């Protein structure tokens, strides 16, 4: 079964939701997205599905598109909701053939890291990293594509000044792959300043290209995700949140990363006073999905994957029967689950997060902050 991505592109390029009053007041010429599997919309499978890629098989894509598009969810991801709310077409993957990129492009690709491969090679971690395009590689792709978006350097700068740039999330794969190499957690924490500096450098590279409106997302609370809960069981009950069931020390890693990233954003704001940099929060909403599930229409339960291997473990997650592989099945209604495959979120979750980024409270400041509209 093929990804059908090129067919999908013909459809999604024509799809745009009606603009809200706030979105109409702040019109972006284009949206450019960089990231990993949280926002990949098909870059990994534009040339067909690799044999190992279960995420490009049903039930991925079942909710919105009806077939897999390369998105690692049952439907749309955050950047899709943002584009639609802004009254724009869904962003085409940057590697798509026969697509137009005048309204933006999505450079995100599954497996992406904040750091380049040389960083991991120097630490003996190359075998543990599956990187299909780091942040800085994606920025190179962006530069290489400029001739498809504008006809002169000045025209490009004018376009980028009127565009929204979303830079991330990055870091999840850097930390995760290091953990999957079974390095001790203090060593994983040692990566934080390197990763945050790399994200900051990426932001500055885009500012140098003319970007003045950027969104920089933080990390998810990985201690709440079935993948990590299954692979790294903690030895004592007190190492889990009493109400959430999440692994405290893994969530602490994400929290420390996010705090360091917010400090970096403050430094960049001071350095570039004419540039608007939004911190976008994945951590808080995901925690709320666990602690206040009913508020968002989710089932109140132990962190549990919608699509997984039923009967295998409390988290419905099994590395040998992951979503899209033999033995795995989707829950009947993904809209009442926050976790899709134990690693990524459902379309319903991404919709709540996108709304919180656009209007608050999950962004500082909100993308469509009334003080910024005009």
Automatic annotation (TrEMBL):
The keyword Kinase does not apply. InterPro entries: GDSL, SGNH_hydro_sf, SGNH_plant_lipase-like. Keywords: Glycoprotein, Hydrolase, Signal. One of its GO terms (molecular function) is hydrolase activity. This is GDSL esterase/lipase. The keyword Signal applies. Belongs to the 'GDSL' lipolytic enzyme family. Residues 1-24 form the signal peptide.
């Amino acid at each position: 079964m093929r990804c059908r991505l090129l067919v999908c592109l013909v459809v999604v390029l024509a799809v745009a939701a009606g603009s809200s009053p706030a979105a109409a007041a702040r019109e972006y010429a284009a949206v450019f997205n960089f990231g990993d599997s949280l926002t990949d919309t098909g870059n990994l499978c534009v040339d067909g599905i690799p044999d190992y890629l279960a995420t490009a098989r049903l039930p991925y894509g079942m909710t919105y598109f009806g077939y897999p598009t390369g998105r690692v969810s049952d439907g749309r991801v955050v950047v899709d909701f943002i584009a639609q709310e802004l009254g724009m077409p869904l962003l085409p993957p940057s590697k798509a053939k026969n697509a137009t990129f005048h309204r933006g492009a999505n450079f995100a690709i599954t497996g992406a890291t904040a750091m380049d491969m040389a960083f991991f090679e120097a630490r003996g971690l190359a075998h543990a990293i599956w990187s299909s395009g780091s942040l800085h590689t994606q920025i190179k792709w962006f530069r290489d594509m400029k001739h498809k978006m504008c006809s002169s350097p000045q025209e490009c700068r004018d376009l980028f000044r009127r565009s929204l740039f979303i830079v991330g999330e990055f870091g999840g794969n850097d930390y995760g792959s290091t953990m999957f190499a079974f390095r001790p957690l203090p060593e994983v924490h040692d990566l934080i300043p390197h990763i945050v500096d790399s994200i900051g450098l990426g932001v500055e590279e885009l500012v140098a290209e003319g970007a003045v409106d950027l969104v920089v997302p933080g990390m998810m609370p990985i201690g709440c995700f079935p993948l990590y809960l299954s692979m790294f069981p903690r030895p004592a009950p007190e190492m889990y949140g009493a109400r959430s069931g999440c692994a405290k020390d893994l969530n602490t890693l994400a929290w420390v990363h996010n705090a360091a990233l917010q400090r970096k954003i403050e430094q960049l704001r001071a350095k570039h006073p004419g540039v608007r940099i939004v911190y976008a929060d994945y951590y808080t909403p995901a925690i709320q999905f666990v602690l206040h599930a009913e508020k968002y229409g989710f089932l109140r339960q132990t962190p549990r994957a919608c699509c997984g291997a039923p009967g295998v473990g409390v988290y419905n997650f099994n590395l040998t029967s992951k979503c899209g592989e033999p033995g795995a099945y989707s829950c009947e209604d993904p809209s009442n689950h926050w976790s899709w495959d134990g690693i990524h979120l459902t379309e319903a979750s991404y919709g709540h997060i996108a709304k919180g980024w656009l209007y608050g409270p999950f962004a500082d400041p909100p993308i469509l902050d009334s003080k910024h509209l005009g």
